[in-house]
Amino acid sequence: MPRAADALRAIVAPITRTGWFRRFATTVLPPFERFLARVSNGRVQFSAFIVPSLILHTIGARSGEPRDAPLMYTADGRGRAIVAGTNWAGAKHPAWTANLLAHPDAEITVRGRRMAVHATLVPDAERDAIWAILEAQWPDYREYERDSGRTARIFVLQPTRIIPG
Q1: pLDDT digits (tens, 9 = 90+) for 37-49
Q2: 10 Å Cβ neighbour count for 10?
Q3: pLDDT digits (tens, 9 = 90+) for 148-165
Q4: 8 Å CB contact between 93 and 87
Q5: Is 81 a residue whose pLDDT tops 70?
Q6: Could you give all domains of the chain from N- to C-terminal order, each with its CATH number?
């Protein structure tokens, strides 16, 4: 019998692929997620009620300034997190993917626990297997990539150390 979260994902996932939801989500959800993360010290994320979520802390590729991005992630079963730069099927890659390409050593906060990670771009030969893992968590997740008309950047985040705090 599927867990409640799996049943909820099966209902919510098709809605998130609609045009009206994408317009709403891209403008409303990121600021709301950042607000919740700020007031809860990274312990609460709205999206975490449906999917595993983290806050990715990067250094801006061009600015050199710290940047935070709330993201859905999928655990790979080996202690690593997988994140996909689908950008809600937008035509452009999300900025955080350029940040990881420029500065692959980053940090994540998961349920209030901060850790250093090293990001590795998933090679083309492994993309189908990784998409299968992602879609086991979020049905038809790859549709975002297909609808965007570009190849989404997918990263594996390997923890390197826990940051005391």
Answers
A1: 788 876 776 766 6
A2: 12
A3: 999 999 999 999 988 886
A4: yes
A5: yes
A6: 4-160 (2.30.110.10)
